[in-house]
Amino acid sequence: MPGLGLLVDIVLIAVSALAVGHAVLYKRDPRAAWGWIVTCVAFPGVGGLVYFLFGVNRIQTQARRLGRRMSSVADRKRHAAVQAALPVEVAALVRVSDAVTRRPLVDGNRVQPLHNGEEAFPAMWEAIAGARRSVYLSTYIFESNATGLRFMDCLAEAVRRGADVKVLVDAVGERYSRPRATALLRARGVPAARFLPLSLRNPAIHLNLRNHRKLLVVDGSVGFTGGMNIGDRHLAGRLDNPDRVVDLQFRVTGPVVPQMEAAFLEDWSFVSGKACFSDLVPNPTGTGPAVCRGVSAGPNEDFEKLTWILIGALNAARERVLIMTPYFIPSRELIATLNAAALRGVKIELLLPGQNNLPFVDWASRAYLWELLKRDIWIGFQPPPFVHTKLFLVDEQYALVGSANLDPRSLRLNFEFNLEIYDRGLVAELAHHFDAAKAVSRRYTWWDDQNRPLAIKLRDGVARLLSPYL
User: Fold this and answer.
1) Which CATH code for domain 305-469?
2) 192-195, strands of its sheet edge to edge
3) Rounded CA gap, 63 and 269, in Å?
4) For the segment 399-415, what is each residue's pLDDT rounded down to a tens digit?
5) CATH number at 110-285
6) What is the pTM (predicted TM-score) of this model?
């Protein structure tokens, strides 16, 4: 049927034309735009379908914006008082974060770093065991191994005590383990939901946009956040575990915890379709030394929020910036800001894992390093096991910790939660942790970079070309 074939051709060309137009209008990275345009032209129809599957990355949540904003006079007065008490050197950074988060800084918090699952999981189990009002848990991966089952039992016991328990697991991250965690939780009577289950109705959104946040909030008074998922992989002391991961989690108490709870309830409202509100008193007082702010970022709001905060922090730096991240694929803006800080005399140190669980991302990362080495930025590779820790420290005054990596997925696509912390004591402790890791790391020099075999340079360069799509 010649007529049917012609109709199919017209439809395929129309799909590709729509994809090309969308890429021209909405792709901010010219490399990404050109890549998609070439794909759509070279493969009519198929290229367009692939673009709408993987290339469209925005989402508008239907949930109401539950995050606490600086809306009341009391909020603004307290925020102004907190800001005035901070060192003048960070004033510009505070203003940047104010503008992009529209959420107040709150004082009186206490933040405790917990190393690996051996420290973090017992503290989390203890908090859940003491819950009386609510337990809210959000994670990217929830494994159904011994650690995961222990969490499930603790959560089920909290339900039996009458606590309001809600568990949110990313639908893609859940697939790392079988049987599925949400099914096991529901079988125990624990309300559990999957974030954006895969769907043919809107595959671009349901496949590409993931909830990467790691949050546990108990009774609105104690929270946990950081880089840890739920599973045996974070028991780094188990030498018999080939998949073991080194990471940090943070136990948080004080007035910032309601911001953590609001971030969870916003996500739960989205997946459930029902507005969920906190009955906590906004911004209660606390006695801890840390000034904090929760930073919720994702493609449903200003998806460059974290990028602006990172740029603001680098511009505010005067002495030293310490960065530890498992995945490093920087944007052009971030590279320029890092180099500008180095040219001002700021000592910048970057620690990456020597053994990465995502080789392709590691290859792409290495193709960027020469640009930093050229400006005398110190780079090191940590020894195995895989280090999943995320730290961003500035002048022993400021820390940004949480779930986000320094790659396009975290900075543009994923739903992430990070915590801004102004606390000299804590930042000094984290800097000591960084220095200890640096001491056992292998320094990566300009000579190392330039003397890679040609085949390796080509491999890394090809991976870099694809980095806008990673």
Assistant:
1) 3.30.870.10
2) 110-115, 248-253, 222-226, 215-218, 134-139, 164-170, 192-195
3) 5
4) 999 999 999 889 888 99
5) 3.30.870.10
6) 0.89
